[in-house]
Design goal:
Blueprint: E1 2-7, H1 10-17, H2 20-27, E2 32-37, E3 50-51, E4 61-62, H3 64-96, H4 101-115, E5 120-130, H5 133-139, E6 144-149, H6 157-163, E7 166-169, H7 179-190, E8 223-224, E9 227-228, H8 238-256, H9 258-265, H10 268-286
Parallel strand pairs: 1-2, 1-6, 5-6, 5-7
Antiparallel strand pairs: 3-4, 8-9
The protein binds 6-chloroguanine (6GU).
6-chloroguanine (6GU) is lined by residues 124-126, 169-171, 173-175, 177-178, 181.
């Protein structure tokens, strides 16, 4: 996965995302993060990138020209790279598929199509659709993603109309710019890219898996501040541990995220599961 971030503050992106797990993922080549300074593309001799909004109003707007030219530079780079990759790839594939000529032609046509489509361009704005884990999963399938970070009071509408494919917000509050939201999205998407996390089960079994929050976890020592680790976790009985964890997930979700709990319980199989669990518990008590 290759991330390209159009921004007036490239150092914020580069400093923020080249540490810890994402830093390692970049070093190992599983992802790449490229911040492009929009100011480098202005045709204004004072390097200005903003101006007053027509019709008046508070603040300044980012102008269309530098944003468009910065985007075009990134788009050209992506298309050139994909063209090169397909030129290397197609002859190899043809050679491999000599015996199935028809099939191979079909695959070549498909790969050509895919390689020359424009990348998705995500504009970070409080006016966008709210980012979710489902969106992260969908975006993690792309080869390249372009993020456009606005500042000041926003960006001239005309350039947005020409280049943006997705308008995304990270929640209902207002930030000073799109850099932190872009970083939030890149983090959430990267951890779904194969090999970025060491442990590939952990990306699956976590908060929001199955619409439930994660269960509580404990490590050594067995007792700390007079608090003991729940007995079942020391038992080595895997089926019981799994059952306890699921129950804790349900309790926690009901308490902390009633909205998610309602979504979970609205599924028939979950209602049945809960009924079964409650019956078992009632039985245990009566013994
Ligand atoms: Cl994407 N941008 C800004 N400026 N503020 C936000 C946001 C984005 N998402 C939530 N607040």
């Amino acid at each position: 996965m290759r991330f390209h971030v159009l921004t007036l503050f490239p150092e914020m992106i580069m400093d923020g995302l080249h540490t810890s797990i994402l830093g390692r993922a970049c070093e190992q080549g599983h992802i790449s993060i490229d911040a492009v300074n929009i100011r480098d593309y202005t045709e204004n001799k004072h390097k200005k990138v903003d101006d007053y909004p027509y019709g008046g109003g508070a603040g300044m707007l980012m102008q269309a020209q530098p944003v468009f030219d910065a985007y075009k530079a990134v788009e050209e780079k992506i298309l050139a790279r994909n063209k090169m990759a397909s030129e290397n790839f197609i002859p190899k594939m043809k050679a491999r598929n000599q015996l199935q000529e028809k099939n191979s032609e079909l695959e070549v046509a498909n790969s050509e199509n895919k390689n020359f489509t424009k990348p998705r361009v995500i504009y970070l704005t409080p006016q966008g659709s709210v980012f979710t884990q489902k969106m992260a999963e969908e975006l993690a399938k792309e080869e390249d993603l372009v993020f456009l970070c606005g500042h000041y009071e926003g960006i001239d509408e005309r350039v947005l109309e020409e280049i943006v494919t997705d308008y995304v917000s990270i929640g209902d509050y207002v930030l000073t710019g799109g850099e932190l939201p872009a970083m939030v999205m890149i983090d959430a998407i990267s951890r779904l890219v194969p090999n970025v996390l060491n442990n590939d089960v952990s990306a699956e079994f976590e908060s929001f898996h199955d619409d439930l929050l994660e269960y509580p976890q404990y490590s050594r020592p067995e007792e700390w501040h007079d608090k003991k680790v729940p007995e079942v976790l020391l038992s080595g009985h895997h089926a019981n541990i799994e059952k306890w964890r699921k129950e804790q997930s349900i309790i926690r979700t009901k308490e902390r995220r009633p909205d998610l709990y309602e979504k979970w319980i609205s599924k028939e199989e979950n209602q049945k599961y809960l009924e079964k669990l409650n019956k078992q518990k009632a039985k245990k008590k009566s013994v």
